[in-house]
Amino acid sequence: MTEFDVAIVGAGPTGLACGIELKKRGLRAVLIDKGCVVNSLYHYPTNLVFFTTPELLEIGDIPMTALNEKPVRAEALKYYRRVAALYDLDIRQYQRVTGIAGEDGAFTVHAEDRQGAPLAYTARKVIIATGYYDIPNYLGVPGEDLPKVLHYYKEPHPYFDHDVLVVGAKNSAALAALELHWTGARVTLVHRGTGISGSVKYWIKPNIENRIASGEVKAYFRSTVARIEPRSVVLATPDGEVEVPNDFVFAMTGYRPDFEFLARHGIHLDQETGRPELDPKTLETGRKGIHLAGVVVAGRHTNEIFIENGRFHGQQIAEALAARERG
Q1: Is the pLDDT of residue 15 over 70?
Q2: Domain total in the chain
Q3: Percent of the chain having pLDDT more than 90?
Q4: Which DSSP string corresponds to 136-197?
Q5: How far apart are CA 147 and CA 145, in angstroms?
Q6: Do 35 and 126 fall within a single domain?
Q7: pLDDT reported for residue 303
Q8: Which residues contact 251 (CB under 8 A, 6 or more apart)?
Q9: Which of 205, 233, 251 is the last residue of a domain?
């Protein structure tokens, strides 16, 4: 069994940044991800445009280029593939981490491959950089387990000429509703708030609001999903229950970190915020030798950490580990 200095759980932009910074300091790291490299970005909507400029997504001092002012999903995927290859990072894709055993200086990270075969990696330190995109915030209503209910939106084509309900009113919901409408789906939007969120990107918000005002997209505000039936959805509105025809439901209600995984491995979380207890300088948790990086540091406040600032966690942790090596 090969021994590493550090095992990194997650190969997203933050995980890659951690691997790069460790390698720069002569530390040997292995990155383990249940999906592909930058798996969360791969699952973003096909036509996604980042709400940032290329330089704010850069890691490893490698410039990122984009055709326009803001990069798109395909450009980001190409960039992170290139960075991973240039630094020759040791990335084990499609391996799900199932447990972290041992203690500081002698950890064993257990995983399994796509066929369920067990794997194990030994490392002196562990960094958990698993992001938050893997676990949806469920509606918790009858019928949510029906196959027609989706918590991720990729592209609109398969939903042409179908009745589609979009739940939510933030960026992902607004974009999905617009693209589905443009592709010929009959779109209904439902949101418990009074209107489209003020945080929706400036080039999307007026567009979806205009579609709603014209009646092209039907919207129910101050409303929630009461239950989901095979051929319809029942909404709880200020005027009582309303049943609308439905073929597909996109529950764009956000995502959260895997708190259960963290707690199961001895990382104490604040009950109210979900924030893990850790050293703000080294990002080391109460379980010595395990560090956190990226959005998991923010607990339930997933809007506080993005690629733009999470990418610096790699340098922060790597410098702390290298200093201990020197000491």
Answers
A1: yes
A2: 2
A3: 87
A4: E-----TTTTSTTEES----SGGGTTSEEEEE--SHHHHHHHHHHHHTT-EEEEEESSSSS-
A5: 6
A6: yes
A7: 78
A8: 136, 138, 139, 144, 149, 150, 151, 167, 168, 225
A9: 251
- Residues 262 and 118 occupy one common structural domain: yes
CB 13 within 8 Å of CB 311: yes
For 114, residues 6+ apart whose C-beta sits below 8 A from its C-beta are 94
Rg (CA), the chain: 21
Average pLDDT score, the chain: 95
Tally of CB atoms within 10 A around 233: 26
Q: What is the CATH number of the domain that holds 208?
A: 3.50.50.60
- Compute the average pLDDT of residues 163-167: 98
User: Going edge to edge, which strands form the sheet with 224-228?
Assistant: 224-228, 232-237, 240-245
Number of Cβ within a 10 Å radius of residue 326: 7
Q: Residues 77, 186: one domain?
A: no
End-to-end CA distance of the chain: give it in Å, rounded.
27
Residues 66-96 pLDDT 10s: 999 999 999 999 999 999 999 999 999 999 9
For residue 40, the model assigns a pLDDT of 93
Parallel, antiparallel, or unpaired: how do β-strands 248-251 and 149-150 relate?
parallel
Count CA atoms within 13 Å of residue 275 on its CB side.
12
- Cβ–Cβ < 8 Å for 30, 88: no
| Residue 327 pLDDT greater than 70, yes or no | no
Domain region containing 172: 138-251
